[in-house]
Amino acid sequence: MANTIIGSSIVIDGEISGDEDLVIQGTVKGRISLKESLYVESSGIVEADIDTQNVEIAGRVTGNIVASDKVELKADCRVIGDIKSPRILIADGAAFKGNVDMDIKD
Amino acid sequence: MAVKNQSMFSNNTVVGPSILISGRLSGDEDLTVRGRVEGEIVLSHTLIVEESGIVKANVEVKHAIVSGVVVGNIRATECVELTPGGRMVGDIVSPRVMIVDGASFRGRVDMGEAQGPREAQERPATKPSYTAYAPRFSSALRPPSVPRPPLRSASPPAPLQRPAAPRPMPVQRTVVTAPPPAVASPPEHLPSDADEDSADAKPLPPEPPVLMDVNKKKVVVKKKK
Amino acid sequence: MLQNNPINIIRKGIIIRGSLSGGGDLVVEGQIEGQVDLKNHLTIETTGKVQADIRAEQLTINGEASGNIDASSKVSINASASVNGDIRAPRIVIEDGAIFNGSIEMDVKLPDDI
Question: Per the domain annotation, does B121 fall within a domain?
């Protein structure tokens, strides 16, 4: 269960970091670095570089994403930026523009 | 799937204990801080800093409840409460301030003691004033951040209750100087505003010599170019 | 001796101008202008007005006070109080409804990393 919620009317301009799950229903601009999961809900708008373990995106994200475990782009999300993660899921209906790097080693 | 997430979480913003936010945070809902926020917080609702919460920021809110640590200034339109565990260093501007036993605080407290205009105009003169009850009514009635005009119309009754002559004076003076342009001389004033724009096209005979001069100067400048 | 301090009361209608010092508890229902230096507990009742720098062990304000306050244990500003001035004390309480303008100095223990 997520501890941290950024509600839909909240705008953060700056940097968020921490060791717990983060749910974004509002707007975050800047940088996000987490050791756990990030959920960008359908009302969420993120204009930030993201560095985390897991990301689930149902809202809008502009920025580069680095996830140590998994990135999930859900239906109706809109993501612009490069994604680097060993596992990437893109649902039917998701809008995505950018490069995907699953970091495959020989 | 997205819907599942949506319904899973309440619509209240919480900054968890391990989270650090640095930057500017603004919004129209309550914010509970269990972690750390540095920078600036601007909310139209309530800020709750829980025991584990640390806020190192300038804060503008309606209502602040501090059980954790705040370093920075708080400006609240309604109320600031320091609960038993609350620790704060900084200045407070708020019509209501509560500090309970066990809380610790260092800084200034400004409850605005009376009507808004007086607060702004006479703050430099720090002569202590005994304003027992009248200010409490007025401070309860108005949020301090409300713009001036409504306060003017609301404030005249308050000076009447106060025997001290020198303080109400500036308020009354502003009341006198401000309304006349709008109330006493609307017929003169409105056309003269229009003159500024239309003078070039249609030189109107009437009053304001100042404006005419301005317009003439403008014309001269244009010619030189 | 100190345990059996008599309680002194300055009744309503009395005005004291000058400096007031001593031991024992003092209740002010009237007015004091000047300076107060008290070893024990000073109470300013709702009718009381003190326009003075105050030093005391403990201070309870229900009325009006203006001036700087230095208390060695506690200052309570109750709901009916109106206080102007700077306060220094280890414990300071401001009730809802009280009017206070000035600065407060308590010992604030902050986390190290702030």
Answer: no
